[in-house]
Amino acid sequence: MKIYVMEKGLTMVGKSWEIRQKLKEYSKQFDTVEQWITANQDATVKKSGNKVIPLNQKIY
């Protein structure tokens, strides 16, 4: 499964059950998708400038 975070949205590629599982997981950390995107942009730009988020990377 892959998650691509862009400035105004995100794209999740994978099987339907994987996407549901990830959405459920991230809903525990963030109240809105906007918060998730903002947090991910800050984390990915600082580390590598890459906007692909590996599944094993913890999001803060």
What is this structure, in a nutshell?
With 60 residues, the chain is an alpha+beta fold.
Q: What does the model show?
A:
The protein has 60 residues and is α+β, with helices and mostly antiparallel strands. It has a domain of 35 residues. Helices cover 45% and strands 20% of the residues. The chain is built from two helices and three strands. It has a three-stranded antiparallel sheet with strand order 2-1-3, covered by helices on one side. Strand 1 and strand 2 form a beta hairpin. The longest helix is centred in the middle third of the chain and has 15 residues.
Ordered list of secondary-structure elements with their pairings:
Layout: E1 2-6, E2 9-13, H1 16-27, H2 33-47, E3 52-53
Antiparallel strand pairs: 1-2, 1-3
What's the arrangement of strands in the largest beta sheet? 2-1-3
Number of strands: 3
User: Which regions contain 5 or more consecutive residues with pLDDT less than 50?
Assistant: none
What gap, in angstroms, lies between the N and C termini?
20 Å
Largest sheet: 3 strands, antiparallel
